[in-house]
Each structure stands twice: as structure tokens, then as C-alpha cells.
Design brief:
It is built from 14 helices and 11 strands. It is of the alpha/beta class. α4 runs parallel beside α5. The structure holds 4'-deoxy-4'-aminopyridoxal-5'-phosphate. 4'-deoxy-4'-aminopyridoxal-5'-phosphate binds next to α4. It catalyses: 6-carboxyhexanoyl-[ACP] + L-alanine + H(+) = (8S)-8-amino-7-oxononanoate + holo-[ACP] + CO2; (7R,8S)-7,8-diammoniononanoate + CO2 + ATP = (4R,5S)-dethiobiotin + ADP + phosphate + 3 H(+).
Length: about 400
Amino acid sequence: MSGTVWDDWLAERAALRVERGTVRSDPVLRDVGGRAPLDLASNDYLGLSRDPRVVAAAHAAIDRHGAGATASRLVTGTLPVHRELEAALAQLTGQTSALVFSTGYAANLGVLTALSGRGAEILLDEHAHASLHDAARMSRVPYATFRHNDVADLDTLLAARRGSRVVVAVESIYSVLGDAAPLVALAEAVARHDALLVVDEAHGIGVAGQGRGLVAEVGLAGAPSVVVTATLSKSLGSQGGAVLCRSEVREHLVNTARSFIFDTGLAPAAAGAAAEAARLVASDPSLAERVRSNAALISGICGIDQSAGAVQSIPMPSPGSAVAACLELRERGVLVGCFRPPSVPDGVSRLRVTARADLSPAEVEAAARLVAEVATRHEEHPRPNPQSSV
Ligand code: PMP
């Protein structure tokens, strides 16, 4: 990329971002006053990314298989550690089989593109994750959205598509709002119309259903018209993605999901770590209980409705007030997420505070009191024109 056309265009785009207050950046975390900040912004809900057993499993997988998978899964990139991971994930979630992808994003792309195709249509919850929206676009079939968690709206759209194979995609627990999907009613609607329900459990596994996910909690694990996608990068503390489904669907994905076929297999360290994390979550329900009780502590102190998962979402009156609160909290040693348009589905700026299982109630309480105090003050005195991105 060189020459004035590109320079002019990049400068114009940068100026537009400043004008709209949508500048983003990727800052490196730094210590505050010589101490690591308290992280209530990441997705390491169970604290497993630094758990010595998970770290040891990553080391062991590197020693066994090397640093990389070295090829796509269909060539020579399927290693014993991938099979172990798939078995551990299927067991954790109560599904018959699992297929591991290199990210949760790739898993969503793979599922929607491979399960749609000619004669199909896709319906998405309007607040579904960007990867599901991108996947719908890449599927090159007609797609539409239904109102968030509105089963009646979905029912109407399904009735109007009689005769098509319809794939419906939702999240189990929504990543920004923190609310849960009415999975049982959604599955009933989908069954009435002979459609297929894809549930993204990125924020449900490890937290809901004693760690087994919301699909298992509501009794839908193994339901023939439900396919689950997951990321290994949140509660499981590693990286990668997975699809949990019956074996016929797995076989179809192995043969047709382009984001599986044309992608290098998941790195051994990530696979080993995630397999160990999945086994730990399955054998220790107290991990999920701790994250839920810490989440209740945060929502109680911050005066918000408790969400279904680890994410607690505090609405702020303006993007400026959200950024200012977030920056002050960072200066005072607590990291929270700052979500504002265009990254928020409903256009409401928010602080996103995530509970963690590996913090004591006293640590969570002290941090939540600080968040509540700072959020309330910035709600009263919002600052316009955010220039800084967090
Ligand atoms: N789905 C949801 C709901 C997510 O929140 C995310 C991660 N932000 C993904 C999919 C993508 O997962 P990954 O980071 O593993 O690509």
C-alpha cells in the first residue's frame, strides 16, 4: 500500500473516526503504582488461563507435539491432543461429538456456511455476535434478523419461510448485555418449523449449568435440532473454538466447513490447555458456582439486574461518561470493559464488568464498590466527545 490515493484515504478514514468518537486502540496492559491492575474486563471467567494445571498441560502438549500443528486437520494436522480435547468437550457439554476449530470465530463461520447452502435461509437474533453476522453474510443465502430474544417474532419469520431449510442462530448468554436466551422456547419454535437452532455458548460454558453450559442446564444437550458452538478462549482460558453436535453433523462439517478444511489445526499448547480446563470444569462445579456468586455480588453492589452469566452490564448515559469512568477506574487499578456505539447492539454505552471465580468475595466487593462509586459520579457529570478509546 503506497502512494497518495491510499495515504489520502487512510487520513480521511482516521479523521472520520475522530469526528464520530469511534477511535479504537490496542493498549498493552501496564502496572498501576507498581501493581498489576485488577482485571474485571477479560473473559478469563474461571481464572484458568494461569491455573498451574492448565499451564502444565500446555507445556506437556508442546513437549509431545511441538509448537504448531504444522498442517490443516485433513492433511497431517490432527494430533492425539485434538482428539483428547474433542472427547473432553463432548463430555463436559453432554454432546455426542465435538469438532475443534482454530477460533470460536472460525467455528461460527464454519457452521453457518456449511449448514446453509442452496435452498436455505438464516435467521439471527439481532444481538448475535459479529462472527454470526459475518458467517450469515458469507453463507450467500438470504438472511434476516429477529428482535432480541423475541420468540413470537422468530415464529412469524419462520412461518413466512415454510419450504426453506432455515438455520436460526443465537447466543446462549449475550456477551454485552449479559442476558440469557429463552432457549427452550426457541428450540420449540425451531422444532415446530423443522428448522435448526445454532447456539453460541461462548459465554455460557464454564458459567451456566454448573459449567456445562446453558444448553445442558435447560435439558437441550443432544437435542437433534440443536448445534452448539463454543470458544476455548473464555472460561476455558486457552484459545480455539469448537462445534458440539451429533456425529452426522460433525462428519458434514469435516467435509464442507471451509474454515475447518483450509485452516491449520489448533496449536498443541492451546489444545492441551483447553482439554485440561474442560476436565477441570467438568469435575469441579464449584468453579461455576464461585463465578456466579461473585457476579451476584457485583450486580448487588452496582445496583443492576443480575445477568445470567459472568458479565454484568452497567448502562451509562453517554459514550463520554463510559470512557471517563473506565479511564478513572484504570488509573485506580481496576480494569473494566467500555462498550459504546458502534460496538453495542442497542446503541447504549456500557461498562462491562466481568466476575471471576478466582477472586475472593472481599476482593470482588472492594472492586465493585469502587466501580459503583465511579460509575455513579460519571453518570451525574457525563463528559462529552470521547477522544480516547478503551
Ligand atoms: N462468539 C461470541 C459470542 C464471542 O463473544 C466471541 C469472542 N468475542 C466469539 C464468538 C469468537 O470467539 P474467538 O475469540 O474464540 O474467536
